[in-house]
Structures are given as C-alpha cells and as structure tokens.
Design brief:
Helix content: 40-55%
Order of helices and strands: EEHHHHH
Shape: rod-shaped
Number of domains: 2
Number of strands: 2
Distance between the termini: 50 Å
Bound molecules: zinc ion
Strand order of the largest sheet: 1-2
Largest sheet: 2 strands, antiparallel
Oligomer: single chain
C-alpha cells in the first residue's frame, strides 16, 4: 500500500499521512482522513435487487400459487392474497370432489406467468419494475 502524503499548510513539505506535525517546520498538519473511495458499479455487474430475479422467477414458475415469489420480492400483501387464493381454490376443489380443480390453476398460472415475466426481463428492467416501482402484479 502506497504511503499517503499530505502537504504542510506552512511550508508545503509533503509529509507522510501519519505525521501529526510537519517534519520540516513543525506546523500542525490538518487532519485529512482517507478520502472515501467512491466505488462505482463495475460495468456489467447486476444492479442491487437483481439477485432476486432468478429466485423469484423460479419460485413463481415452480411454486406458482403459493406466492413465494411475492414474498421474495417483499410483496407480503400480494403473497398472502395469492396464497389465500390458492388455498381457497384448493378447498373448493376438495369439497366439490374435484369439479372445482381447474380453479386451483388460476393462482398457479398467475405465478407461472409472473415467474416467466421476471426471468425474461433484463436485470435493469427487473430492478426498475419490481424493486424501484414495486409493481404489485405482473
Ligand atoms: Zn512545514
């Protein structure tokens, strides 16, 4: 690591950063903390939140109606709605001895469609739509 130097305000001598006083004239050197390094996002790196895209997309497709992909994105309300819809349609399917089974596919299909939509978006689009704008459905 290269030694940081700071110039003396009195005589201009470059002093090692750890010095409190100038080695040349004894002037108290200004406290100059290490400048905060701005770390720009390296080109090609995923923006914050993009790491949820794959997990949410796969959960949407595989677990569809359970709303897991909603919870991953922080959409608690929507997740509960989807999960409730799934459970209600499941109960209807059971009490109707299977006649209502097609209803169960409604929340499942919603999950699949949303999962596919997540995965087909670019990382930037995904973050903009679902992390920044918090688009609740689709
Ligand atoms: Zn000096």
């Amino acid at each position: 690591m290269a030694t940081q130097y700071k110039p003396c305000p009195g005589c201009g001598t470059q002093n090692p950063g750890i010095n409190v006083r100038c080695t040349n004239c004894g002037t108290v050197l200004p406290i100059s903390p290490m400048p905060m390094q701005q770390v720009p996002r390296p080109p090609g790196a995923a923006p914050a939140g993009a790491e949820k895209k794959i997990a949410a997309g796969i959960c949407g497709i595989v677990l569809g109606g359970l709303g897991i992909h909603k919870f991953i994105l922080g959409y608690t309300q929507e997740g509960v709605i989807l999960l409730s819809a799934y459970l209600v349609t499941l109960i209807i399917a059971i009490v109707t001895c299977g006649i209502g089974t097609p209803l169960v596919f409604i929340p499942t299909v919603i999950g699949i469609i949303e999962g596919i939509m997540y995965l087909t978006k670019s990382d930037e689009e995904f973050v903009q739509t679902y992390i920044v704008n918090k688009k609740p459905w689709f």
